[in-house]
Write a structure and sequence with these properties.
Radius of gyration: 17 Å
Shape: globular
Low-confidence stretches: none
Strand order of the largest sheet: 1-2
Mean pLDDT: 79
Strand content: under 5%
Helix content: 55-70%
Structural class: mainly alpha
Length: 163
C-alpha cells in the first residue's frame, strides 16, 4: 500500500511543487527511500543547524547516493527557484526518518511528551492497548519518537507543528 501511495505522489510532482515552500514535508514524501547517506557526520551537522544556516544541497549532495528512480525527480526539483533549499530539507527529513535516536534524543522526546503530550499518548495507548507484543510496542514507540523528533526539527526551522 505504501509503495502505491508513494507512486501516486510521485506522479503528482507538478502539483506538489506548488506546496514546496509552505509545506515541504508534504512534498518530501516523493523522495522517501531515495537517499543513501554515506557520511552521517555531515548529516548530523546539517540537522543541528538553524534554519538560516542550512547549507545548499550542492554543498553536501556528494555525500548522498540518490536512487536511480529518483534522479529525474531531483533534477525537476532543483530547477525550481527554491529547489536547493527544498532538497536540503528533504534530505534532512529522510535522514532523520532513518536514523536511530540516541539515548539523549530519546530522553528529550520523553521530556517533551511529559511537558504536554500525555493526552495524545493516552489516546494512542487506548487505541493500541489490545494484544500487541513487546517488540511491536517498542517499534511503535521508536517510530513515534522519530516522528516527534522530526516535528521538533521542523518547528525549529520555522514551520508549524503538524500534530
Amino acid at each position: 500500500m505504501l509503495r502505491k501511495r508513494l507512486a501516486e505522489k510521485r506522479r503528482e510532482l507538478g502539483f506538489l511543487l506548488k506546496m514546496m515552500e509552505p509545506n515541504p514535508e508534504m512534498v518530501a514524501v516523493v523522495l522517501h527511500q531515495a537517499f543513501r547517506f554515506r557520511n552521517p557526520v555531515v548529516m548530523d551537522h546539517l540537522v543541528a543547524q538553524d534554519a538560516d544556516e542550512l547549507p545548499e544541497w550542492h554543498s553536501f549532495s556528494d555525500t548522498i547516493d540518490v536512487a536511480a528512480w529518483a534522479g529525474e525527480i531531483v533534477q525537476t526539483i532543483l530547477e525550481e527557484p527554491l529547489g536547493e533549499w527544498f532538497m536540503t530539507i528533504a534530505g534532512a527529513l529522510e535522514y532523520m526518518h532513518h536514523k536511530p535516536l540516541t539515548a539523549a534524543e530519546r530522553a528529550q522526546v520523553e521530556d517533551n511528551e511529559e511537558d504536554g503530550q500525555q493526552d495524545r499518548d493516552a489516546v494512542r495507548n487506548e487505541r493500541h492497548e489490545d494484544n500487541h507484543t513487546e517488540d511491536h510496542d517498542e517499534e511503535e514507540s521508536e517510530a513515534r519518537a522519530q516522528e516527534d523528533a522530526g516535528n521538533d526539527w521542523m518547528v525549529e526551522q520555522g514551520f508549524d507543528r503538524k500534530d
